[in-house]
């Protein structure tokens, strides 16, 4: 069983989409708003828990905070750190509600020490229960079944130097070696205390580049297929 931490940089264009997925409600489902890649049991969404007061307007909070510190961001500036904390599904098997919350509270405390105090939202998703979706998410004794429970944290990447604040996701996140150090710290300060092993270190910048390359290749294949189909249609019309 492994403790898991992931953080990615986000620009202003990403903020609203991340917000509505993080703060989802059953009303979103009724309006037809779904989220690709999420295995949500909407009947459980109201059980999601906020470790900080729920924030329903992240963009306004970001704007107000930047104005407060007299920061004028560039159009492509990273204005948000998008973080997920979780563990192997087996870790949650047999845990009580309070035990799961305590684990994620320790993750939140680690996150604040590591990425700063400008956290604008922190919500535990109890509604992505994997194979348990549509069925009971609890055992007969009232403890929770193992599932994809996770903590989603949104943070403004502000760095203070000599009393002056600036947007500095690059410095806060660091490079490959700094990210490995953060993973080491997460293991020693959180995961190990909960009997979890250290997960595999992944360089998410490299992963993102790889995924972008794959997406590019897929797009190129789709374009070639569309051209081939168009050429075939032309030939068929000529033959007719």
Characteristic key phrases:
240 residues; alpha+beta; globular
Summarize the structure in short.
Helix content is 44%, strand content 19%. It has eight helices and eight strands; from the N terminus they run βααβαβααββββααβα. It is globular and about 75 Å long.
Describe the structure.
The protein is α+β, with helices and mostly antiparallel strands and 240 residues long. Helices cover 44% and strands 19% of the residues. The chain contains eight helices and eight strands, in the order E-H-H-E-H-E-H-H-E-E-E-E-H-H-E-H. The chain has helices at 12-22, 26-30, 58-68, 89-92, 97-115, 169-173, 176-189, 204-239, and strands spanning 2-11, 49-50, 78-87, 119-125, 150-155, 158-161, 164-167, 197-198. The strands form two sheets. Strands 2-4-5-3-1-8 form a six-stranded mixed sheet, sandwiched between helices. The protein has a two-stranded antiparallel sheet with strand order 6-7. Strand 6 (158-161) and strand 7 (164-167) form a beta hairpin. Mean pLDDT is 86; it is low at 203-208.
List the helices and strands and how they pair.
Elements: E1 2-11, H1 12-22, H2 26-30, E2 49-50, H3 58-68, E3 78-87, H4 89-92, H5 97-115, E4 119-125, E5 150-155, E6 158-161, E7 164-167, H6 169-173, H7 176-189, E8 197-198, H8 204-239
Parallel strand pairs: 1-8
Antiparallel strand pairs: 1-3, 2-4, 3-5, 4-5, 6-7
Shape: globular
Share of helix among residues?
Answer: 40-55%
Order of neighbouring strands in the sheet with most strands:
2-4-5-3-1-8
- In round numbers, the mean pLDDT is 86
Give helix and strand order, one letter per element, not per position: EHHEHEHHEEEEHHEH
Number of strands: 8
Helix/sheet category: alpha+beta
Which stretches are poorly predicted, pLDDT < 50 over at least 5 residues? 203-208
Strand content: 15-25%
How many helices?
8
